[in-house]
Amino acid sequence: MSNHSKKSIIIGASGLIGNQLVHLLLADTSFSKVTVFVRKTLPISNEKLHQIVLDFKQLEQYTTDFVGSVLFLCIGTTRKKTPNLADYRAIDYGISLRAANLAKSNGIEEVHLISAIGANSKSNIFYTKLKGEIEEDLIKIGFDSTYIYQPSMLIGTREESRPAELFFQKLSTVFDLLMVGNLKKYHSVSKEKLAKAMLSHHLKAKKGVHLLTFSDF
Interior CA angle at 136 toward 193 and 87, to 5°? Predict the structure, then answer.
């Protein structure tokens, strides 16, 4: 694909990593269009940015908008925002997999997913089990290139207040000193570092399934 002709799609563009990624892609000269699916308009003005404001329950009505070179899945929620587990699953799993299927049906052959360290479909813990199921079912869709990022604690300021998360972010500066050897994958990662890793891995994308932890970012 020639320079200046890449088109990307981002699901979760208002989130911590997704928003950072939007800015990186808009600044990258190899992209001519960045399409984001959002519940409300992002306060960003750029001629390359194409914002589709929607109710994600009607995602399939926007099938023809899933056209591009690569799909970035950055969507997620929290138990505080979505205490009902069925609703939580509908967002984290449902939107991600529905978007991935729409992209694949339109010929997109590269996908990048933000998952989490410890993701395991056989886990007894709801969050890690769900992340594992998302990973497994995304792989089954059969993209030529599938990149799955498994970060531990994410460092960065969000729009909404998360006092507990900010507390643990501060603690992570101490715990990170202990994250060496086999524990390296539990090292915290900044939003900038993870977003840059996603762009970097896209620019040198290889076929196959790639599971990435801190050392790969």
Answer: 80
Q: In this structure, which topology does domain 6-216 adopt according to CATH?
A: Rossmann fold (3.40.50)
Domain residue limits, the chain: 6-216
Each of the 217 residues of the chain gets a pLDDT tens digit; together they read 445 689 999 999 999 999 999 999 999 999 999 999 999 999 999 999 999 999 999 999 999 999 999 999 999 887 778 889 999 999 999 999 999 999 999 999 999 999 999 999 999 999 999 999 999 999 999 999 999 999 998 887 555 555 555 555 566 665 665 567 777 787 889 999 999 999 999 999 999 999 999 999 9
Q: What is the pTM of this model?
A: 0.89
Please list, residue by residue across 161-193, b when 16 or more beta carbons sit within 10 angstroms of its beta carbon and e when fewer do: eeeebeeebeebeeebeebeeeeebbbbbbbeb
